[in-house]
Amino acid sequence: MSDVLTPALCCAPLASAVLSDQEATATAAVFAALGNPARVRIINLLGGADGSVCLCNLIPPLGLAQSTVSQHLKQLVEAGLLDREERGKWSYFSINTGAMERVAALADMTKGGCC
């Protein structure tokens, strides 16, 4: 296991007094993970799902190749925004609700802190 926290776990709200270089880098990584329309659609699809969703069920609504969907999912998992579960040869994905709550708090300019 890596000693480096995923970006969604260590980013700081934009309203913080002063962001450290590490906090700014982590925050930028979260926004970069969400900076692609396909990845935003994946979050949307998983957010509306009842439980975790198999990779194979994400391919048709996205209209992308399996390898492309896998790459987008990998980036979202690495950013800490999604959870991944292996079931046999299939991968199932779900929203990391704690991470998404922290992402929502990032842009809250009224509080200056989160979590």
Descriptive account of the structure:
The protein has 115 residues and is α+β, with helices and mostly antiparallel strands. It has a single domain, classed as Winged helix-like DNA-binding domain superfamily/Winged helix DNA-binding domain (Arc Repressor Mutant, subunit A, Orthogonal Bundle). 48% of the residues lie in helices and 12% in strands. The protein has helices at 7-10, 21-33, 37-47, 59-62, 66-78, 97-106; strands at residues 53-54, 82-87, 90-95. A hairpin with a 2-residue loop joins strand 2 (82-87) and strand 3. The chain is elongated and about 45 Å long. 24% of the residues are buried.
Report the radius of gyration as a whole number of Å. 15 Å
What kind of oligomer do you see? single chain
Q: Number of DSSP strands?
A: 3
First-to-last CA distance: 24 Å
